[in-house]
Amino acid sequence: MKLPSPNTPALEISSLEAWYGESHVLHGVDMAVMPGEVITLLGRNGAGRTTTMRAIMGLTDARTGSIKVNGMETIAMPTHRIAHLGIGYCPEERGIFASLSCEENLLLPPVLKTSAPGMSIEEIYEMFPNLAERRHSPGTRLSGGEQQMLAVARILRTGARLLLLDEISEGLAPVIVQALARMIVSLREKQYTIVMVEQNFRFAAPLADRFYVMEHGRIVERFSAAELDEKMDSLTELLGV
Fold first, then answer.
1. Is the Cα torsion angle 62, 49, 38, 144 positive or negative in sign?
2. Residues 26/186, Cβ–Cβ less than 8 Å
3. What is the reported pTM?
């Protein structure tokens, strides 16, 4: 795969509209994510954040507008072709196979033919020591936090460099949330590009380079980490926290 220019956004969304059946959910979403950035999508439940992630992957009933991955237009592509461009989507429901062991779950996804190799099992176990300890445990025996780690680790095995992470900290113990935060920092250092949907603002705030805020299927605010303090009053109103 030809490497894109460093000035080409890893993900560029323009005038994105998306539907579930007759329900029109996204209304002209615009977003750009540069290689190596960590972006957080904020908003109340029902604002359209998860639908944005699903629309990027072609998982909504219909979508129009433009979604470019490393400069390549994907709006008309089926989901399997989009994934092969090096995108890994970690949905809120995780999708762990209960009948397989932790390591069998890790080995299941195919390695993508991207410009970068996926992480080895050894690298993953170094990043997630919990998974190394539970490598032979069936999926049903893993805690919620371990399942979340496994869901992310499985993506890293494929060679995906653009990660879409949907509420990965939700409902997890603080010690697991801290481990996931360290993971995000480590992946940023390795130049992964990450788009996170997060309800846990305390988790997302110190990790993200930039923030987008959604309301009623639209982007209503965007700002950098350096502007976070001055935006807090506006965020409190928009997020209802």
1. negative
2. no
3. 0.91
HEC string for the chain: CCCCCCCCCCEEEEEEEEEECCEEEEEEEEEEECCCCEEEEECCCCCCHHHHHHHHCCCCCEEEEEEEECCEECCCCCHHHHHCCCEEEECCCCCCCCCCEHHHHHHCCCCCCCCCCCCCHHHHHHHCHHHHHCCCCEHHHCCHHHHHHHHHHHHHHHCCCEEEEECCCCCCCHHHHHHHHHHHHHHHHCCCEEEEECCCHHHHCCCCCEEEEEECCEEEEEEEHHHHHHHHHHHHHHHCC
Q: What is the pLDDT of residues 195-238, one digit of tens each?
A: 999 988 889 999 999 999 999 999 999 999 999 889 888 888 88
Alpha-carbon span 49 to 197, nearest angstrom: 6
Using CA atoms, how far residue 22 sits from 7, 19, 62, in Å, is 38, 7, 10
- Contact criterion met (CB below 8 Å) for 101 and 135: yes
CA atoms lying within 13 Å on the CB side of residue 39: 24
Report how far residue 139's alpha carbon sits from residue 103's, in angstroms, rounded to the nearest whole number: 9
Which domains are delineated in the chain? 11-239 (3.40.50.300)
Instruction: Give tens-digit pLDDT for 98-114.
Output: 889 999 999 888 777 76
Asked whether the CA dihedral 112, 114, 117, 123 is positive or negative, the reply is negative
Side chain identity, residue 43: G
Tell me what pLDDT residue 79 has.
92
Residue 169 structure tokens: 């900290």
